[in-house]
Amino acid sequence: MPSKPFVLSVKALIRNSQGRYLVIRRSAASKHNAGLWDFPGGKTDPGETLDGALIREIQEETELRVELEHVVGAAESDLPDRKVAYLLLQARVLDGRVSLSEEHDDSAWVTAGELAKTDLAPQFRNFVRSLAEKR
Amino acid sequence: MPSKPFVLSVKALIRNSQGRYLVIRRSAASKHNAGLWDFPGGKTDPGETLDGALIREIQEETELRVELEHVVGAAESDLPDRKVAYLLLQARVLDGRVSLSEEHDDSAWVTAGELAKTDLAPQFRNFVRSLAEKR
């Protein structure tokens, strides 16, 4: 039995000047995890660099301009036809105000403690638990 | 000041049938971390998929044929001109015996506990500590 392909998705924990993190809610029309909260980011396009892809996705989804700071974790989701490997990077806001695309219908800036209680896409729940324990 | 680019490197914790993990020692001629132990893997080439790159690197470095199983962690190293973001995946051996290229000069199969005491490249030390705590 051939194993499923792994695809890469890069996600950002965007921190504001108050140390809160940005979460955005997947719209009702989302194919996966509709109505659940998510981090900005997404798949790298062919030939795209890691940071180029993440900065582009953040701009498309939130209109924020950010600087990527550090790798903060990894996660995985198992879909019927593939596995998604998530790499999570912390980023800080350089400028801009959150303005969502049609992919998301709400946004919030939450503390690390609140993140652990947020109704996030299931693949990120272990990660945010370990983040809350570290603080 | 522009921030450094982030480049992606994919590394494998290859598990054998005894539950031991493969580490390989970087040869004296290595540009970074010469003489330290490492996990098989490396950078994705332009246009290459995550799993394609990792399976190719493992084959080139060890001649093992593996199946990728799960995302197990992330790490980072800060070089003068760039940051490397590491995504670590667990893999299992399908077939083959370890045969090293010129990039490495020794190999060993170690337990998770031994991994924490191995003289690994510094970017993986936090990761193996947390791995040992989980077992």
List keywords for this structure.
41% strand, globular, homodimer, 135 residues, 3 helices, four-stranded mixed β-sheet, three-stranded antiparallel β-sheet, alpha+beta
Produce a short descriptive summary.
The structure is a homodimer of 135-residue chains. Chain A is of the alpha+beta class and 135 residues long.
Protein model, in words:
With 135 residues, chain A is α+β, with helices and mostly antiparallel strands. Helices cover 20% and strands 41% of the residues of chain A. Chain A has helices spanning 50-62, 112-115, 125-134; strands spanning 6-15, 21-26, 37-38, 41-43, 65-78, 83-95, 104-110. Chain A has a four-stranded mixed beta sheet with strand order 4-1-6-5, with helices on one face. A three-stranded antiparallel beta sheet of chain A has the order 3-2-7. In chain A, a hairpin with a 4-residue loop joins strand 5 (65-78) and strand 6. Chain A is globular, with a radius of gyration of 14 Å. Chain A starts with 5 loop residues before the first strand and ends with a helix.
